[in-house]
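Review this:
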Amino acid sequence: MVSRTFPRLRSRRALHSIFRSVRLSFLVRDRRTLLALLTACVVGGGVAGAAVAFTSPLVAGMGLVAAVGLAVMLRSPQWGLYAVVAVAILLPFGAVPVNVGFKPTFLDGALGITFFVWFMRLAAGRVRRLQLTPLAPFVLAFMGVAMVAFVAGLEHAPLDKNTLRRFGEVMLGVSLFFVVVDHVRHRRQLEGLATVIILCGFLAALIGVVLYVLPQAMSVRLLSALRVFDYPAGPGVLRFIEDNPSLPQRAISTSVDPNVFGGLLILVTAFTAPQLAAPKPLFPRWVVVWAWSSRWGLPWC
């Protein structure tokens, strides 16, 4: 009897020792929290492995980034605003590789989560008073006129899911005005958003430069890897002046169209320019000069 229970006792002690060492490694005192963490790691690893096996490593990597981003975005609307800015600049046309009648874009998801977290904070009473500006009535009036025009236009053209989706995206984007005005109340929050805009703009310009200087076959291969996110693929992803391959290539980064990329660079460059003369810039001045001048290295957009 003793010989049988002794191995069991040792195995229990071994499991307890492993459990305790894992707790100390993760600095988690609550056992339930640790079990939830381990379960999430196991399930996440299984899902990531299945994604790699049945789709592609890119989908698995983006899924992991999306899961971590979702966990962070649920903490505060500030992180949701960061995600909206990053997606709008770096992956504006990316869509979730899941068809639910339509493919929701990453930007739709980021906006939806941001609105959800913001609304739940209001409903839970974590924000005492909704903060608005004198421009709020004009924004509401614009949204009202847009809705009336949309409904009136249904008499002249049939409604399809793509039209309804695009109109919803426009309304959602305009409504972001209220989230920003209400949530961004301190200088630190505003500086955080400005930092993300400048960094993402610089990264988009850097991607455009890299894709321009790489051999065309390599650029086509890299851009075609985004086909899983509903991006175009094949030799047509590269754009040339007058659509003539014998003429110089135009930079596109991940914006698909060179005109869209050029407009993005103009906006971000104008946004970054005041940092050159700011008494206390967000970055060291030499970094600002380098980031700002890198965008002017893309005149062929």
